[in-house]
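I am writing to request your help with a piece of structural work I have in hand. A protein sequence and the structure tokens that stand for its backbone fold form the material at issue. Please examine both parts with care and let me know of anything in them that strikes you as inconsistent. The record follows directly beneath this note.
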Amino acid sequence: MSDKEKTENEPFSWKAEIISWIQIIVAAVAIAFVLNNFVIANSRVPTGSMIPTIMAKTRVIGSRLSYINSDPERGDVVIFHFPDDPTGKTYYVKRIIGLPGETVDIVDGKVYIDGSDTPLDEPYLAEPMEGSWGPYEVPEGSYFMMGDNRNNSLDARYWENQYVKKDKIIAKVLFCYFPKFKKVV
């Protein structure tokens, strides 16, 4: 008699069926836990601070593995713990502008790094930024973050703790998935 015939001839067991379903549910929960805590980060961008790159009320997915063997780079859009929240429960999504050890100056809406004569090339901005700020001297091991919608973004220019330490960066944003799928660059 084959295995299939043996299985077909066995009486139905509710106990075996329930145990089978419990095993599947426990495995799914374990996989989701590992993915959500060690591989991906899921976040919501509630405001228009990252327009046009990320629209308001959009959900994004980031990779927690992006910075294991490398450092964050200027221009990366990242999910991080908001430095002015002592609980560490508030996540922000912004773009890295200043790297460790750099000086960031904003003059007449243009960003200059380390006293350069040439402003930072920022093709992701929808409109010119207004105003002048700085200089910001980014400490070693920290980053200076700004939103892409500079005239409507409460970013590092306005925070009490203006720099984000590397260990507070959770993930590099890869794509938006709700309400519309879109790769983030």
